[in-house]
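Researcher: Quick one. two chains, 922 residues in total.
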Amino acid sequence: MPYFDAASAAPLHPVARQALLASLDEGWADPARLYREGRRARMLLDAAREAAAEAVGCRADELVFTPSGTRAVHTGVSGALAGRRRVGNRLVVSAVEHSSVLHAAEAHAAAGGSVTEVPVDRSGAVEAGAFAAALDGNTALACLQSANHEVGTEQPVARAAAACREAGVPLLVDAAQSLAWGPVAEGWSLLTASAHKWGGPAGVGLLAVRKGVRFAPQGPADERESGRAPGFENLPAIVAAAASLRAVRAEAEAEGARLRALVDRIRTRVPELVPDVEVVGDPVRRLPHLVTFSCLYVDGETLLHELDREGFSVSSGSSCTSSTLTPSHVLRAMGVLSEGNVRVSLPAGTAEEDVDRFLAVLPGVVARVRERLGAPVAAPAPAAGSGPLVVDSLGKRCPIPVIELAKVIGDVPVGGTVTVLADDEAARLDIPAWCEMRGQEYVGEEPSPRGGTAYVVRRLG
Amino acid sequence: MPYFDAASAAPLHPVARQALLASLDEGWADPARLYREGRRARMLLDAAREAAAEAVGCRADELVFTPSGTRAVHTGVSGALAGRRRVGNRLVVSAVEHSSVLHAAEAHAAAGGSVTEVPVDRSGAVEAGAFAAALDGNTALACLQSANHEVGTEQPVARAAAACREAGVPLLVDAAQSLAWGPVAEGWSLLTASAHKWGGPAGVGLLAVRKGVRFAPQGPADERESGRAPGFENLPAIVAAAASLRAVRAEAEAEGARLRALVDRIRTRVPELVPDVEVVGDPVRRLPHLVTFSCLYVDGETLLHELDREGFSVSSGSSCTSSTLTPSHVLRAMGVLSEGNVRVSLPAGTAEEDVDRFLAVLPGVVARVRERLGAPVAAPAPAAGSGPLVVDSLGKRCPIPVIELAKVIGDVPVGGTVTVLADDEAARLDIPAWCEMRGQEYVGEEPSPRGGTAYVVRRLG
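Model:
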């Protein structure tokens, strides 16, 4: 049963499993104690820290283990902001950071701080110049992920780091998605990651803070992990995390090249096999194992269920699969289609056959979902109608507003407009994206007198 | 090799190990995902929550899993204080709470809040009336442990809870040391605990918040664990924690009775076998598996090393074994001897023979340490001297000041005084404790003109 959601959580690496089992016996005691079980635990902890620091590219005394990548980000952001409180209170983040960074930014804003979000282009990449321009004399910290977790696009970390150095601003790099594949480019001040993304166990994140970076941990502390991560160390899991990081790094070059080719196959074949698909994210500057595409006229949740029934586990940034009723903030920031969104992230060791079977199954699955939703199957016939058309999709969830738009576009004379009334947040993203894919003109939106929003589209051909 | 430090961390229970192994295979995926691996993880998480809630005595939706007992306490205290910010800003705690509670209290005070510490008696117990008296109209939260982690004394939780209900103040009970043995008395509002204390793995704590208790989680949050514990769930460890809690509870009555008898044996035999020992903590209202005693004229760190060489792992609240240079805050609050302090906490399954061997080995170990330190071996001879005596122990670490006091007391005429100059913090606790054990009068302390403190002792006999 192919599991294609490594970006959420990777299955436990065999090396991690082995290390975990060994350290359940050897590393359960308190490493702060003086007796032999404690000394043994301390040795395991020290060795794990050395190994993780080597993989990160920092000194062991710059790195602490946290209970998760999310906690590493929260601690890193709040500690760095507090450490530079006298300099300023601005936090600069890219618009496509992981939610843990954005939640930390929200908490900062709620406490009276200021937050600047740097936009991304349609590939999901920050423009380094724009990032540099956002740094001002009031900026306490900047955050930029090494690569995006939803679309795989790599960020210009080296150039952002140079700009930060120039501006005297520390840079926190969330390396959760890329650390398995290699170290982050030089120049970061703080770095965070999460073990279960690289085949380590849950319950372990890491936070590295370069010597010389002002850092003031917030909240109650204790003497563990240099006062940066209170609470009894999750030692067997830490040992397993460090061991598996070393193991995946040893395999990274070969496995990365193999998965990169499989992802290229998906990127090429999906638009050939499935009509009306947008493959998103940078095709070249990207993570080796991750690809995201969106299918017009498809409900993301149904698509996931159908793929699950066929044996494939993938995730989606469509609003229809989340409890928030809004599409993924990453897709929104990129301005790409969000309906029928599928993220495929291949775990190490993924079989080529499984990818091929996915490609074989996908077209039929998408077609079935579209058929059930009554999606248009052919390009619109030339119109004979007249006058401005209005489609009322109020109260209807994605992808229905786009489906209804597609159904009437044939009735619109070339040069004429159609207005779609919708109150589903996804329409704001998906109607312009549909226009771009279909070569129609997206005119704009205005409040609808009947509630929701009126989206205006001009037929060009 | 007998490990007698279960109160720090218990070795992994066989049931925990088994559950952990099984859920490494079944529970590594993200429980928030819709595909089968995610649904399976969600089922495991739900079942673990049900099991833990049953053991705690609350509803499943009142309980969240945290990365450690410490994090549960920090989250519980800050969330409850924030939830009642409009009522007041006072936090009431006992003086012998776990450091995680006291660290949370320090953070509260640093943020401008007010903290009241309720003292304990010489057994380590809070007096329920004094606890009730500390609750005022400005009190947002009160904290009382179920039983003390250093001396085993049970706290009057039921009476404290009644007083809190009366005053309309929520009560947080840190049940870390007692939850393995049974549920906490009714009446608590928030409850915290830590899995590695009951033979579960590291990396799991729990926080229960009763419905109706005002609670506002602080810091960045996400959608996991009801917004109270951000970050990817440490699922295999959570499953193991819940399974082992159920297992230790099934064994609690029989094993508790067996360990209680072993601890009684230690409590009775140690003062018979070793001269000049104070066994501390309540002899009856106590945890079944834990006993603490202090040995006059002994350096705690050396004692621990000697016991370790004999194969016994125990901990100590002596200042000489910690990096803080002050004795344990618990021993200080109780006003008992801190030098040569030993905490024995028996893990489930401790063999009777190991306890007997400990009792056989201890007298020789203590005698050797005393001999090396030049401690007095006999009661003082009647004095013939005259005039006030001064002992200069400035710059000397515990237990030297007390040893030097004991050596000269024989030179002091009955009714006369001796003054000990000392700058080791432990002397403040250990000189009065020595007086009580020796039937001499502790007159008091004053600043010493030569630095440090002058402790005055009157010879009574």
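DSSP finds twelve helices and 14 strands in chain B.
Researcher: Thanks, that's what I needed.
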